[in-house]
Amino acid sequence: MSTRDFIEKDYYAALGVSKDADAAAIKKAYRQLARDLHPDKNPGNADAEAKFKEVSEAYDVLSDTKRRAEYDDARRLFGAGARGGGFPGGFPGGGGAQTFDLGDLFGGGGPAAGGRAGGGGLGDLLGGLFGGAAGGAGGARSRSQAASGPARGQDVETEATLSFDEAVLGVTVPLRMQSPGTCPTCHGNGAKPGTAPHTCPVCQGAGVTSRSQGAFAFSEPCRNCRGTGSVVDDPCPTCSGSGVTTQTRTITVRIPPGVKDGQRIRLAGKGAPGRRGGQAGDLFVVVHVADHALFGRKGDDLTLTVPLTFAEAALGTTLTVPTLDGNVSLKVPAGTASGRTLRVRGRGAPGKGKAGDLLVTLDVAVPVRLTPAQRKVIENLSEEMNEDPRPQITAAVQAGSER
Predict the structure, then answer these.
(1) For the whole model, what pTM was predicted?
(2) Residue 175: φ, ψ to 5°
(3) Does domain 296-395 sit in CATH 2.60.260.20?
(4) In the beta sheet, which residues pair with residue 306?
């Protein structure tokens, strides 16, 4: 991401959240927008696809604590909404109403400024903040190389819904998705088959043009080639000269064991192809996990509720309970109270370093209807046991009655 992106793009507005929104609010807003704008839900809708990419880019920045802090610092420093023109009323201390190209501020002096080698511009001062040096005496050359050189492809996001078992044990799934891809007709160069792009005669392949105004030099993307450094005279009929088309593809993705609901899995190099030989972007798979009929999950631990009879709880028993990969025997001690949880170690979901546990909660089942014979047996048992299970409560009641 360029320094210009930090200044020009309002990621909070893209997600529809306030600047002080917490991580949970940002995630909730993103997931709602991603569902509504996903290409699979809006086939052939270019506006929805563009908005989906904008929302994904905003979430990539705001969901990362460090990158969000850098973004907020940049916006505070230069002012939200600063676009290609620059500072209203002129450069601070410059006197006059000239307009300044932010690219020159970050890139350093250009050739029309006399090729001064002394100052690298604000890019040198802010290189640490924005994650890259902005140039110096060779600022104009750096911008030329960036404009005409390789460009990384965009990141792509899709979703996968897994069963509970698949999420815990891991699975390999095919994903059918629509995303930008290299045009199969022109192989990405944008030219009609049998022709080829040629160097832009205006910028000589630099991708930028420069002009002088007083003591300052201004650089901007070349309008003739739109900053690419090359011109296509006879565009490819399939991609209209862009070199990229929206394609439907199926890829096989290995989902690791223990993945959680809402987790994003990054697949390096599986996103949109790069331009001019640049590397491909990444693919992010957002995982949704369906509920299970028996099991629940707390972190890496699985939970299971097992009913048992009064006799089993009172006398003790050995139960056979299911896991996601077989059965285990569980010894229930005599006198077990309803609600007690027993732990089966290592039979939960895979985690970092070791697997979680299976937490079995015992629930003493009380029959809803009794036969006359069953009722007689229980009445006899009650008379035989003849003990108060709540002595403290009874004592408190008696004390209250005596007041």
Answers:
(1) 0.50
(2) -115, 125
(3) yes
(4) 362
